[in-house]
Amino acid sequence: MKRAGFAKRAAVLAAAAVLLAGCGGTTKDNSGGSSGGGQTQTTANPNAPTAKDLKITFLPKQVNNPYFTVAQGGAEKASTALGEQFKATGPSDADASSQVTYINTAAQQGQNALLLAANDSNAVAPALKAARKQGMKVVTFDSDAAADARDVFINQASSQEIAAGQVKLISDAIGGSGEIAILSATANATNQNAWIDIMKQELAKPAYANIKLDEIAYGNDDDQTSFQKTQGLLQAHPNLKGIISPTTVGVAAAARYLDSSSYKGKVALTGLGTPNQMRKFIQDGTVGSVELWDPAKLGELAAYAAVALSSGQITGQQGEKFKAGDLGEYTIGAKGEVVLGPPLTFTKDNIDKYNF
Amino acid sequence: MKSLLRWESALFVLLVLVAVVGSAATGGSFLTGQGAFNVGSDLAVVALIAMPLTLVVVAAEIDLSVASVLGLSSALIGMLWNAGWPLEAILPVVIVVGAVCGAINGFLVTKLGLPSLAVTIGTLALYRGLAFVVLGDQAVADFPDSYTQFGTTPVPGTWIPYSIVLFVVLAVVFGLLLHATTFGRAVFAIGANEEAARFSGIRVKRIKFILFVLTGAVAALAGIVYTLRYASARADNGTGLELNVVTAVLLGGVSIFGGRGTIGGVILAALVLGGLTDALILDDIANEVVKLVTGILLLASVFAPAVTKRLRGATP
User: Fold this and answer.
1) Which of B188, B300, B310, B288 has the alpha carbon at shortest distance from B251?
2) Would residue A13 count as lying in a domain?
3) Closest-CA residue in chain A for B231?
4) Long-range own/partner contacts, residues A27-30 (CB < 8 A, 24 or more apart)
5) Residues of chain A contacting residue B210, judged by C-beta atoms under 8 Å apart
6) Is residue B29 assigned to a domain?
7) Residue A36 banded pLDDT, cuts 50, 70, 90
8) Which residues are paired to A211 by β-bridges?
9) How many domains does chain B have?
10) Does B266 fall in a domain?
C-alpha cells in the first residue's frame, strides 16, 4: 500500500519534471529572436576623455578578507583620483552563488562598472552577461569569470610565474627532495586550479624528480577549515616535508598550525601570503618565504581598466593600451587579459619593507 | 486561529513596509521589473522547499537534510550530464532520488521511531557526503543555454522567473493539500496531539512517511532550480540553506511544536525574507546586518506568540 502510494507520487513528480524540461526547450526558441540588440561592438578611441562621476562597484570574493581589503584600498585610491564614485559591497561567505545577488543589484542600481573577483567562474556568468547588456563594464581581477562574461581580466601575475615560483621556493626549502602537499582554497577557484595544474607540470620536470606531491587539500579559504586540513595533511603523511598554500587565508592558518605544533621547523611552508599576516612566522623561522603581488596595485589597475573601458578608451580587444596612473601603461593581451607584473618574494631580509 | 490570522496580517504589513521603505531607500530601483525578477529568483529555492516542510513542521516533525538533498541532486545532475545522459532523463531520475532520500528519513522516523531532529541532522551530513562521493570537488557548468535560460531569464514578456511559476504551482498544491483535504486535517491533528490522532484512527506513521518523501522530492526539484539558476552543478551547492528554509517556515507562523500554521503565512514570510534581503543589499547595507535582521525576525516570530499567550493568561 505504502509502496504503491510512493511509486504513484514519484511517477507524478517525474512527469512534472519532464514537463518542466519541455518548458526549457521552448525558452530557447522564444528568446533566440529577442537577443539581437544586446552587445554592439564599438571601436576603442584611445584619445577619448576620461569620464567623471562613474559609479564603480568593488565586489570581492568575500568581505572582511584582509587581502581584498587591501585591493579595495587600491581600487578606491585610483577611482577617487580619477574623480569617480566608488563603493565596495559583497557577501560574507565565499560561496559559489552568493555573488550573483550582488551582481544583479549592481546592475539594478545602474552602476557603470564592476570590479569582481569571481568565486565560481561559471556561476556568475549569466548575471554578468545580463548586467553587461544593460551597459555595465565588467573587470575581473584576482580570479576570472568565464571569458565571454567580462570585458577585461586583470591577472595578478602570469599563472606560470606564480606556480613555478611556488614550486621553486618549496624545493629550495626542502633541499630538493621529499614529499609535499598543496593546501588550496575552494576546489573550484579558477586561479587556484590553474596554478595547481602548472605546479604539477613543473613537478614533472627532471629538476624536481625527487619531489613527490602527496595530496591536494582544500581549506575553502576558511581559517578554521584550513587549520584543520593542515593538521590532517601532517597526520596522513608522516614523511611530509613541505606544504605549498597558494592562498593568503590558507598559508596563514597553516603557519599558525605549524607554529603551535611539533612540526615547527621540520616541515617547510611557502605560499601566497601578505607580509602583515606572515611577518611573525617569517621572522621566527616557521616559514622561510612567501610570495605575493601587491594587492593594492591589483585593485588600482582594475579600477583604471574599468574607467578606461567606461570612457571608451579600450574595449577589451588584444593589443589595446591604457594608462594606469603611477603604474604606467598596460597592454591588453590574449583573451582580454592584463598582467600586473612579476610577484614579490618576501623573506626575513625584506619583509619589513612592506606593510599590507 | 485568531492569533494566527493576526500573525499573517502582521507579516503582510511587514511585506508592504519592506516594499515601500525598500523602494524609497533605493531610489525606486527596488520595485522595478528587474528588481522583482531578482527577488523572485533569489527566494524561489527557499520558498519551494518551505512548502512541503511547512506540512512536516505542522505535523510536529522537522527535516534539516533538505539542503543536502538539494546538493546531492545538483551533484547527480552534474555526474549524469558528464556521463552523457540527456537532461530530459536526468531530471526525473534526480527527483526520484530526492524522494528516496526523503523515504529514508521517513523510514528512520516512523518505522524505527527515532526523533526527526536527530535523524535529519544525521542525513544532513550523509546526503552532503554522498554528493561529494557522486561528483567530487568538480563543478559541471556546460549545460546548454536552452536549459540554463530557464533559471536566468524571466518568462517571455514578463518579469516572472520560471522558478516562481513552479513555486506558485507547488504553493497551490500544498495549500490545498494542507487546508482543503482530510489528509491536511490529519496533519494538523497529528501535530496538535499525536496520541489522540492515532486513537481517532489517523494513520500517523503513513502520513508522516509521505510528508518526508514529498519533502525529499521537492528538495531535489529545488536542486534542479538551483543548478539551472547558477548554471553550475556542484556538490557544495546550497550548503546551509536548510536554516533559511526553517526560518521562512517559522517566520510564517508555523508552530515549531506542531499543530498550527498556514501555507499562506509561509508564502508571506518567504516574500518578506527575500524582499528584505534584496532591499538591504540594494541599499548597500553590509551583509552582516542582513543576517542580523533575519535573526531578529526569526526570534520575533518565536517570541511574539509566546508573549501574547502570557499576556492573555495574565488579564482575565
Assistant:
1) B300
2) no
3) A123
4) A27/B146, A27/B149, A27/B150, A27/B153, A27/B156, A27/B162, A28/B144, A28/B145, A28/B146, A28/B149, A30/B156
5) 5-6, 9
6) no
7) very low
8) A178
9) 1
10) no
CB contact under 8 A, B226 and A97: yes
Name the band, by pLDDT with cuts 50, 70 and 90, for residue B313. Answer: low
pLDDT at A355: 78
Q: Is residue A300 part of a domain?
A: yes
Asked if the structure places residue B312 within a domain, the reply is no
Using a CB–CB cutoff of 8 Å, tell me whether B86 touches chain A.
no
Q: Does position B304 have pLDDT exceeding 80, yes or no?
A: no
The two most distant CA atoms of chain A are separated, in Å, by 78
Based on the fold, state whether residues A109 and A209 are members of the same structural domain.
no
Residue A259 shares a structural domain with residue A314? no
Q: CA–CA separation, A137 vs A189, rounded Å?
A: 22
What is the extent of the structural domain holding A271? 159-292
Quote the CA–CA distance of A255 and A277 in Å, as a whole number.
Answer: 10
**A276 & A315 share domain:** no
Structural domain count, chain A: 2
Residues A306 and A115 sit within 8 Å (Cβ to Cβ):
yes
A199 and A307 co-located in one domain:
no
A contacts of B221 (beta carbons < 8 Å): 13, 16-17
Greatest extent of chain B over all pairs of C-alpha atoms, in Å: 70
Task: Pick the residue of B80, B94, B143, B146 with the most A CBs within 10 A to test the interface with A by mutation.
Answer: B146
Q: Which set of grid coordinates corresponds to residue A28?
A: 530557447
Is B18 within a domain? no
User: Per-residue pLDDT for A92 more than 90?
Assistant: no
* Residue A213: strand, helix, or coil: strand
> Hey, how many other C-beta atoms are within 10 angstroms of the C-beta on B56?
28
Could you tell me which residues come within 8 angstroms of residue A251 by beta carbon, excluding any fewer than 6 positions away? A183, A245, A269, A270, A271, A272, A273, A277, A278, A287, A290
B residues 153..182 contacting A (CB < 8 A): 153, 156, 162, 166
Residue B116 lies in domain = 39-239+255-261
Q: Is A60 on the interface with B (CB under 8 A)?
A: no
**Minimum Cα–Cα distance from A12: chain B residue:** B92
Average pLDDT value over all residues in chain A: 86
Q: Tell me if residue A256 falls in helix, strand or coil.
A: helix
We report the CATH number of the domain holding residue A303 as: 3.40.50.2300
A355 located within any domain: no
> Are A166 and A274 in a shared domain?
yes
Q: Are residues A90 and A120 in the same domain?
A: yes
Chain B residues lying within 8 Å of A105, measured CB to CB: 38, 278, 281-282
> What's the gap between Cα B213 and its chain centre?
14
Q: Does a structural domain hold residue A115? A: yes
Q: Are A354 and A327 in contact (CB under 8 A)?
A: no
Same domain, yes or no, for A171 and A238? yes
Model confidence band, residue B15 (pLDDT cutoffs 50, 70, 90): confident
Specify the higher pLDDT residue, A34 or B264.
B264
Q: Indicate if A241 and A206 belong to the same structural domain.
A: yes
In tens, the pLDDT along B105-122 reads: 999 999 999 999 999 999
> How far is Cα B87 from Cα B71, in angstroms, rounded to an integer?
17
Strand A344-346, strand A85-88: pairing: unpaired
C-alpha cell at B98: 530526492
CB contact under 8 A, B148 and A126: yes
Does the pLDDT value for residue B176 go beyond 80?
A: yes
CA angle B56, B60, B62 (to 5 degrees): 50
DSSP B139-177: -B----HHHHHHHHSBSTTSS-BHHHHHHHHHHHHHHHH
ipTM of the complex: 0.71
Residue of chain A nearest B226, judged by CA positions: A97
pLDDT score of A111:
95
